[in-house]
C-alpha cells in the first residue's frame, strides 16, 4: 500500500513539475528517477533520465543504481561506460552500483578494471565501496583477492565482516568462516542475523552438524537474536544434508511460523540425497502449492523416483510439468576466454570448435579410465540403456566448457566456469579427476556454491 501511495504521489509531483515547467530541473528529475526506480518502474526512470537536458553525477548515479535495483545489470554497465566517455566524476554510489552489476554478471574483467578506478579515485578508503569490491571478488571466485581487499581495510563495519564471512562460507572455507566469526566477536562487533545465515550455511556445506546446533543455540542465548526463516532453512539443511531427516522434520513441525519454499526445498533436497521418498512427497506437495512454476522441485522428486526405477511415476511427473506449462531449465555453462564469454548448453553442437572439444573430452576420459573412473549412470534419470546414459552425461555443459578451457587457455591457468543449475554427481566426480589429470585448478560456480577442484579433490568435500 505504501509503495502504491509513493508511486501515486510521484506521478502527481511529476505532473506538477510538467505543469510549472520544472520537469527539466536536474534536482527534480534526479528525485523522480530515484522514486520510480525504487518502485520498480524503471521505464519511467529512463524516460525522465533521457529527457533531462542537464545531468549531474548524482543523476547518472541514480540511474545506474536504478538499473541494478531492477536487475538490469548489463544496462547499468552500458550506462557506466557512457558516463565515463563524458568524463563525469565518479561517486561512491556510482562505483558501488557498478561493482554490484559486475558481481551479478560475474564480470571479473570489468570488475578488476573498476578496482583500479577505486584506487585511482581514492575510494579504496570508503567502507561501502570496499565492501562491494570484496563481495565482487568473493562471488566471482577470487576468494584470495577478496581476502586481500578485506585485510588491508583498517576500519571495518558489520557489512564488511558479513561480506567476507559470507565469501568464505560460499567457497566452503568453513574453518575460515568460524575463525573470522570469532575474531569479529573478539573485536566487540556483534554478529547480526545476516552473519548467522553465513555461519550456519558453512556448517551445512561442511557436514558439521554439532557446530550447526551450537551456533543456532548461540544465536538466541548469547546474541539474543530471534531466528528467522533463513536460519531455520539453514538448520533444516544442516540436519538433512547429514542424514538427520527425522530431526529436520521435527524442527519444521515446531517452527514458530509456517515453513517457506526455502525450508521445504532444503528438506526435499535432503530426502533425495538420502532416499527418503515418504517425506520427499510431503515436501514436494507443499512446494507444488507454494511455487507451482518452479520446475526444479518436480525434477528433484522425479529423480528420486528414477533412482528407484519407478518409471511410471517419473512419467506422471513429466506429464504434470507439461500439462501445467512448467518448463525445465536447460543446463548451461559459460567460461571467459580472452575477454570474451563462451556459453555452452547440454548437448551443444553449434560451437565452431565442437569437434575438437568432444575429441578432447574423449582423451580425458581415456586417462580417467586408468584411474578407475566409471560414469555415474545413476545421475541420468532417463529410462534408457546404460550406453545412452553415458552418452547423455558426457554432453553436460560444464564438461564442454572445461574441455574448451583446456584447449583455449594457456598452460597452468585456472579454468573458471559458471553454471546456471546444480552440478550433477557425475560431473563433480569428472571434474575432480580432471583437475588431477590436467594439473589445473578448476573453479565452478553453480547455483548453490563454489567448487574448487584441485589435485583430484573438491573444496566442498563432496557435501553440496
UniProtKB/TrEMBL annotation:
Keywords in alphabetical order: Repeat, Transit peptide
Entries under Gene3D superfamilies matching the protein: Tetratricopeptide repeat domain (1.25.40.10)
PPR repeats: 157-191
Domain DYW, chain residue ranges per copy: 373-464
GO molecular function annotations of the record: RNA binding; zinc ion binding
InterPro entries: DYW_dom, E2_motif, E_motif, PPR_At4g14850-like_plant, PPR_rpt, TPR-like_helical_dom_sf
Pfam families: DYW_deaminase, E_motif, Eplus_motif, PPR, PPR_2
Listed PROSITE patterns: PPR (PS51375)
GO biological process, one term: RNA modification
Similarity comment: family membership: Belongs to the PPR family. PCMP-H subfamily.
UniProt-recorded name of the protein: DYW domain-containing protein
Organism of derivation: Dendrobium nobile
Amino acid at each position: 500500500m505504501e509503495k502504491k501511495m509513493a508511486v501515486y504521489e510521484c506521478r502527481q509531483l511529476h505532473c506538477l513539475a510538467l505543469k510549472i515547467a520544472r520537469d527539466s530541473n536536474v534536482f527534480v528529475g534526479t528525485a523522480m528517477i530515484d522514486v520510480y526506480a525504487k518502485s520498480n518502474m524503471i521505464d519511467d526512470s529512463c524516460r525522465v533520465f533521457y529527457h533531462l537536458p542537464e545531468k549531474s553525477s548524482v543523476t547518472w548515479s541514480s540511474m545506474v543504481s536504478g538499473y541494478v535495483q531492477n536487475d538490469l545489470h548489463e544496462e547499468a554497465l552500458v550506462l557506466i561506460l557512457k558516463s565515463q566517455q563524458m568524463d563525469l566524476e565518479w561517486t561512491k554510489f556510482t562505483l558501488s552500483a557498478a561493482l554490484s552489476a559486475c558481481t551479478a554478471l560475474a564480470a571479473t574483467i570489468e570488475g578488476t578494471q573498476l578496482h583500479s578506478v577505486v584506487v585511482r579515485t581514492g575510494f579504496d578508503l570508503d567502507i561501502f565501496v570496499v565492501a562491494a569490491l570484496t563481495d565482487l571478488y568473493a562471488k566471482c571466485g577470487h576468494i584470495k583477492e577478496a581476502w586481500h581487499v578485506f585485510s588491508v581495510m583498517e576500519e571495518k563495519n558489520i557489512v564488511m565482516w558479513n561480506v567476507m564471512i559470507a565469501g568464505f562460507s560460499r567457497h566452503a572455507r568453513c574453518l575460515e568462516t568460524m575463525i573470522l566469526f570469532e575474531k569479529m566477536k573478539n573485536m566487540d562487533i556483534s554478529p547480526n542475523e545476516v552473519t548467522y545465515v553465513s555461519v550456519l550455511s558453512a556448517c551445512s556445506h561442511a557436514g558439521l552438524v554439532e557446530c550447526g546446533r551450537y551456533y543456532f543455540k548461540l544465536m538466541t542465548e548469547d546474541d539474543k537474536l530471534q531466528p528467522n526463516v533463513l536460519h531455520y532453512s539453514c538448520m533444516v539443511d544442516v540436519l538433512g544434508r547429514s542424514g538427520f531427516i527425522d530431526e529436520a522434520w521435527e524442527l519444521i513441525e515446531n517452527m514458530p511460523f509456517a515453513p517457506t519454499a526455502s525450508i521445504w526445498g532444503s528438506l526435499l533436497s535432503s530426502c533425495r540425497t538420502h532416499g527418503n521418498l515418504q517425506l520427499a512427497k510431503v515436501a514436494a506437495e507443499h512446494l507444488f502449492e507454494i511455487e507451482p512454476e518452479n520446475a526444479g522441485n518436480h525434477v528433484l522428486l522425479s529423480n528420486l523416483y528414477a533412482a528407484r526405477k519407478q518409471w511410471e511415476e517419473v512419467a506422471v511427473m513429466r506429464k504434470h510439468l507439461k500439462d501445467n506449462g512448467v518448463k525445465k531449465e536447460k543446463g548451461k555453462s559459460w567460461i571467459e576466454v580472452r575477454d570474451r564469454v563462451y556459453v555452452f548448453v547440454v548437448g551443444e553442437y553449434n560451437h565452431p570448435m565442437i569437434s575438437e572439444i568432444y575429441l578432447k573430452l574423449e582423451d580425458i576420459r581415456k586417462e580417467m579410465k586408468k584411474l578407475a573412473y566409471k560414469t555415474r549412470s545413476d545421475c541420468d534419470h532417463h529410462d534408457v540403456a546404460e550406453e545412452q546414459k553415458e552418452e547423455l552425461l558426457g554432453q553436460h555443459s560444464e564438461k564442454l566448457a572445461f574441455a574448451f578451457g583446456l584447449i583455449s587457455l594457456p598452460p597452468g591457468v585456472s579454468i573458471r566456469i559458471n553454471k546456471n543449475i546444480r552440478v550433477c554427481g557425475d560431473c563433480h566426480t569428472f571434474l575432480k579427476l580432471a583437475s588431477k589429470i590436467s594439473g589445473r585448478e578448476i573453479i565452478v560456480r553453480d547455483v548453490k556454491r563454489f567448487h574448487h577442484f584441485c589435485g583430484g579433490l573438491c573444496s566442498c568435500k563432496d557435501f553440496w
